[in-house]
Structure formats: C-alpha cells, structure tokens
Amino acid sequence: MIVKTPILPERVRKVPQSFSWIDHRLIRDGYIEHCSHTAGFLYLFLVCVGDDKGLSYYGEHSLMKKLSMDESVFEKARSDLVRMGLLAWQAPLYQVLSLEPLEKSWRNGTSMMLGDILKSAMEAAHD
Q: How would DSSP label each residue in 13-50?
C-alpha cells in the first residue's frame, strides 16, 4: 500500500463552512470525457458557487464575464451540460444535478433508439 504524505503539511486543505464538492463519478463514469473545456469550466464554476442543492442564480452576463466566454461559446457549453444531464437551467436559475449512471452506448459515443433505451431500462429494473 502506498503511504501518501503531504508535500506541504502546513497547507493541507480543510473543509470550510461554505463547501462544495465534485463527485468522483464525473471522472469514473466518463462524464468528463464528453465535456469540452468550456463546458467543464462552466460546470466547475457552477459547482463552486452553488448552494447545498446545487442551485445558483448567477446571470448569463456575469458568468460570461467571469469565465471570459462570448455568448455563443457560453450557450454551447451550457447546452452541452444540459444535454449530458449534468445541469438544469431555467432562467435565471441553474442547478448542478446529481450524477446518474451513463448508458454504455452514450459513453462510447454511439446512439440508441429511444425504444431500445426504454427496453434496456425496463430490463434493468426487473433484474
């Protein structure tokens, strides 16, 4: 077993009262592999500013300014996160969503017919 020792023990992170987290499943389940850099950056920012339910009221223009994104890049990043099931958005509210297991076909970049997805979900529910 590898014993990990902090390089700078005086700088070990401590959990502050105002705390957010990034779920390891973002990497383990393959979400991050399907994020553009801009989508990942937006996701990280919204995780950091969200409350305990993942909610944030940051306005579009504030987000674009803080992240140095123009409108088209920002809208693409936001729509990618919504499509991937990482983010819900209903102006002016953003919600970072809980991570749900990805379908293997989605992780591999292949497409499935809706009927096949529903059939697969029903079979999994009965197992």
A: ----SS-----THHHHTSTGGG--HHHHHHHHHHHHH-
Question: How far does CA 124 lie from the centroid of its chain?
Answer: 24
Task: Please name the residue that has the structure tokens 């705390």.
Answer: 19
Q: 20-99 belongs to which CATH class?
A: mainly alpha
pLDDT tens digits, 58-99: 999 999 999 999 999 999 999 999 999 999 999 999 999 999
Quick one: pLDDT at residue 124?
58
Give me the residue spans of the domains in the chain: 20-99
Q: Is 42 left (phi over 0), alpha (psi -120 to 50) or beta?
A: alpha
State the Cα–Cα distance between residues 96 and 81, nearest whole angstrom.
9
Question: Contact 65/30 with Cβ under 8 angstroms?
Answer: no
